[in-house]
Amino acid sequence: MNSKLSGRVLASLIIFSLIGQIAWVVENMYFNVFIYKMFRANAAAISTMVSASAVAATLTTILMGALSDKVGKRKLFITGGYIVWGISILAFALIRMDILTGITGSALEAMSLGVSLVIIMDCVMTFFGSTANDACFNAWLTDSTNEGSRGKAEGINSMMPLLAVLVVFGGFMGFDLDKAESWTLIYLIIGGVVLFSGLLGIFLLEDPKLTPQKNDSLLGTVIYGFRPNVIRENRALYHTLLSFVLFSISIQVFMPYLILYYTVGLRLDNYVLILAPAIILASVVTFVYGRIYDRFGYSRTVIPTILLLMAGYTLLYFFRQIPPVFIGTFLMLSGYLSGMAVFGAMIRDNTPAGKAGRFQGLRIFSQVLIPGVIGPWIGAFVLRNADTILNDDGTRSFIPNQSIFLAAFVAAVVALAAVLLFRRRQAAEKS
Predict the structure, then answer these.
(1) What is the β-pairing status of strands 396-398 and 388-390?
(2) Are 28 and 52 within 8 A, CB to CB?
(3) pLDDT tens for residues 18-63?
(4) Residues 6+ apart with CB under 8 A from 392
(5) How far apart are CA 300 and CA 345, in angstroms?
(6) Domains, the chain
(7) What is the tens place of the pLDDT at every residue in 180-203?
(8) For the chain: N or C, fewer Cβ within 10 A?
(9) Which residues are paired to 388 by β-bridges?
(10) How far apart, in whole angstroms, are the C-alpha atoms of residue 13 and residue 290?
């Protein structure tokens, strides 16, 4: 098979994946810091926001991915989705304490209203983002690659979440996140960039040739991936999805609290100087690992990624000094990104041709919904008795601690056991 990606496909992959992930960084990592610093949110509120967003992302991806299959178009949903996605991010610039206090007349009520508004608007933003990125861009990527190029493409795609972290943290490194005006500017910049990318896509993005599913009802298209006969016919795909659930739960145990752990738990004001080089090195590892997947396949590449993840957790749990924290962060990120590449490529390789849109909801079930509901609540549970600090306004905030990495390690052990079990079953079926 041709393993080359055309220049236009490669450019579209890099631009829409990177900019989409920049927006998700703001949602997945910065919103947590935003409501923590601006509205004194506790761990339960952060977990509620992550879980609500995960539900919104999954329902949106199931519906809109299936709709794009039925219509036989990806470009319309991607470009239009990115434009409206950018507008929804711009709206966060209006969620400010001075505006909310003027509405409620009470700072305490304004904080409570602020947390509620952020959670609601997070779900609204997620609808547009999941339509554009989770459902239709990911379906487009499956349509635009083949088994000879998917490891390479997924290696690039899987680099983007943490490259986006690097871009966002580097770009906003000088911003004082304790000030409302910094957040206003962040939302204006990110929202504008996402909106512009949608406009750019009108001229850059090339629609794959798809046959509209006119004879299938929308409901039939939506539930296609949940049919028992479809599951039986695609066992390898569903085994991979189940393993991906457990892998992603491990990630979501600590990820919502990671930046808060560095800044509040470890008191690392210069945490970007640790995180940035770790991200760069992990991205290089992931890029190379995508090519290794193309050569050796899923069964020989998935286990090392989980072991890397567990090694990183071990160092982050036992050590607080900068050198081992850096090494632990590098190993954890390498396992995380490489694992995402391997699982993602395997899912694409086993997705029936021409039906990528209707299977994106299942991918989001595995990557977002179940992990996004279970993982953060495990994290909140292990942090339930965490120490607190007194803020200048008299309120108290929790201090994330290393117990989140112990809980994530346990989840990774379960994921490793599942991968080994499914691999043994597949080997028995072949023999």
Answers:
(1) antiparallel
(2) no
(3) 999 899 888 877 888 888 888 888 878 888 888 888 889 888 988 8
(4) none
(5) 13
(6) 7-430 (1.20.1250.20)
(7) 899 999 999 999 999 999 999 999
(8) C
(9) 398
(10) 15
